[in-house]
Fold Type IV toxin-antitoxin system AbiEi family antitoxin.
Amino acid sequence: MFSHASAALLHGCCVWQNPRETHVYQRYRASGHASADVRRHSWTLSPDDVADAAGLPVTTLERTVVDCARAMHPLEGLVIADSALAAGAERDALLDVLEAGAGHRGARRARLVIELADAGAQSAWETWTRYELLRAGLPRPSTQMPVETGRGLFHTDLGYEQWALGIEFDGQVKYRPDGVRPGHDPAQEYLREKARAEAIRRAGVTIEHVTAADKRDVRALLARLTSHLPPEVVRAARPDSRLPPT
């Protein structure tokens, strides 16, 4: 059956990058003629670990998240865990699956990923932005931070309500014709975003925008974001050694 990142895709989860291999669990030992683009895993699965997705046999969503969190870079595992929580997986259920396989490699990393997972992330890049803040040892930001404005209630991708800072990841797709859906008008999208940003500004919240280009200089990104935080909070931040560079 399909497993790990392959199962995550079949379950409809976001992934940080598409896997180069197809991951499967099998009950028999791989032969010497196994395909180079298939990664075979051997582990006795219980019936509770087995599900169906897109008409194909896969590990359950919970088992998939735990397997990915054990084996993958923490950012990659976190993207999948965030997506799974948004799809309805429960954190306690993930921890139960993890505990059932206690003693297996990667358990400590997986527990950290599950504890950091957040259903409010709506894209892999939003997860990346949050990951870099956490890796720097900064306070955990809120996802979908609410901002009450004169034009109604808006939400920013991330933010620190106590310091009136909203963080938005700007992708390019919504500014392309038909980028979001058929008939999508980027000009109208731009006007809506401009009006929304002005309403949030008038509500007293500063918005910092993040793009994929910021990945080239994370230090500069963090300096820009932390310039809006109290100096004592920034001074107290200590990099989290459990979260490696991306």
